[in-house]
């Protein structure tokens, strides 16, 4: 039995940091005359690998747009995270749907970093992350707002990373594969590799799978032994170590499919990461089958 490890890298998700409830103080200059104020909370999504620790982020900063009631265009706002509300604490008049907010800076480890470019707060992340600061970035960030209606208190999500490619909308898991063979009566086993980079697994902050889309590909090198059919073990019923008899019995219970791209739905990616699945590929000669088992682990970085 030969075993090889092959890492398949894609974006990954790390859970949300602390949610900070913002105190009601620090309203705008004439808020006493207004019917109500919507206040923010901040959720921090950490996709850093090395540099920045999200627990050092103490505030975010920005500006109001020209149409915000009770504020002048360019007025600054701040949201304190885990501390005393700032004097310019962000507040929006209830139902002020014309109000536009822009995030301009982040305070981390007692240093305020100005973003380049500033981030207009919309319902989704920008396509590319902003550098904080410009020139020699310490980190990259993206941001979005849960609602633009301001009918109630609202949440701003700040996504931070030390890799600009990871500060984006996509929340996908990494996949690692381990390949083994089970040979019967000298019938050669198939010799495929599995490329799972085409599968995007979206998770929530607790690594619970929200959706899985795309497909994985079985690749065959030149002169390598091909197979004819495959079965996906969508519940890791085989486990890590299986005998030929166990693999053969499990394969016989399945519905073998001709070699083709494997849709994400076949992996039955439900539950909480990490999830382990097996792809069993068969090659048959004179009625005798040999197998290749590719063990795939979907997990967060």
Low-confidence stretches: 1-35, 165-172
Strand order of the largest sheet: 1-13-21-20-17-18
Q: Biggest β-sheet, characterized?
A: 6 strands, antiparallel
Question: What is the number of beta strands?
Answer: 21
Mean pLDDT: 77
Evaluate the radius of gyration. 26 Å
Percent of residues in helices: under 10%
Can you put this structure into words, describing what you see?
This protein has 301 residues and is mainly beta. It has two domains: 20-166, no CATH class; 172-299, no CATH class. It contains one helix and 21 strands. It has one helix at residues 244-253, and strands at residues 4-8, 20-21, 37-38, 40-46, 57-64, 76-80, 92-93, 101-108, 111-120, 130-132, 139-145, 154-161, 174-182, 192-195, 199-203, 209-220, 229-233, 257-258, 262-263, 275-285, 288-299. β10 and β11 form a beta hairpin. It is elongated. The relative contact order is 0.17.
How would you briefly describe this protein structure?
With about 300 residues, this protein is mainly beta. About 5% of the residues lie in helices and about 45% in strands.
Which helices and strands, and how do they pair?
Blueprint: E1 4-8, E2 20-21, E3 37-38, E4 40-46, E5 57-64, E6 76-80, E7 92-93, E8 101-108, E9 111-120, E10 130-132, E11 139-145, E12 154-161, E13 174-182, E14 192-195, E15 199-203, E16 209-220, E17 229-233, H1 244-253, E18 257-258, E19 262-263, E20 275-285, E21 288-299
Parallel strand pairs: 4-12
Antiparallel strand pairs: 1-13, 2-4, 3-7, 5-6, 5-8, 8-9, 10-11, 11-12, 13-21, 14-16, 15-16, 16-19, 17-18, 17-20, 20-21
């Amino acid at each position: 039995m030969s075993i090889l490890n092959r890492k398949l890298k894609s974006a990954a998700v790390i859970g949300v940091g602390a949610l900070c409830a913002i105190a009601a103080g620090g309203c705008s200059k004439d808020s006493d005359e207004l019917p109500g104020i919507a206040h923010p909370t901040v959720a921090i999504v950490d996709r850093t690998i090395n540099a920045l620790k999200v627990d050092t982020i103490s505030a975010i900063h920005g500006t109001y747009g020209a149409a915000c009631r009770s504020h002048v265009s360019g007025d600054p706002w701040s949201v304190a995270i885990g501390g005393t509300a700032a004097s310019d604490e962000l507040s929006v008049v209830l139902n002020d749907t014309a109000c536009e907010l822009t995030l301009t800076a982040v305070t981390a480890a007692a240093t305020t970093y100005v973003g380049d470019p500033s981030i207009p707060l919309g319902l989704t992340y920008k396509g590319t992350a902003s550098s904080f600061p410009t020139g020699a970035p310490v980190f990259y960030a993206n941001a979005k707002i849960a609602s633009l209606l301001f009918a109630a208190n609202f949440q701003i999500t700040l996504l931070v990373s030390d890799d600009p490619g990871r500060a984006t909308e996509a929340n996908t898991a990494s996949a690692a594969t381990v390949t083994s063979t089970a040979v019967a009566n000298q019938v050669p086993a198939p010799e495929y590799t599995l490329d799972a980079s085409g599968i995007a697994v979206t998770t929530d902050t607790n690594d619970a799978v929200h959706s899985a889309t795309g497909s994985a590909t079985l690749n065959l090198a030149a002169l390598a032994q091909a197979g004819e059919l495959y079965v996906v073990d969508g519940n890791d019923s085989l486990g890590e170590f299986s005998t030929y008899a166990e693999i053969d019995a499990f394969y016989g219970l399945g519905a073998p499919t001709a070699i083709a791209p494997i849709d994400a739905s076949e992996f039955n990616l439900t539950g909480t990461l990490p999830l382990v699945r097996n792809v069993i590929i068969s090659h048959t000669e004179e009625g005798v089958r040999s197998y290749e088992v590719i063990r795939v682990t979907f997990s967060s970085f």
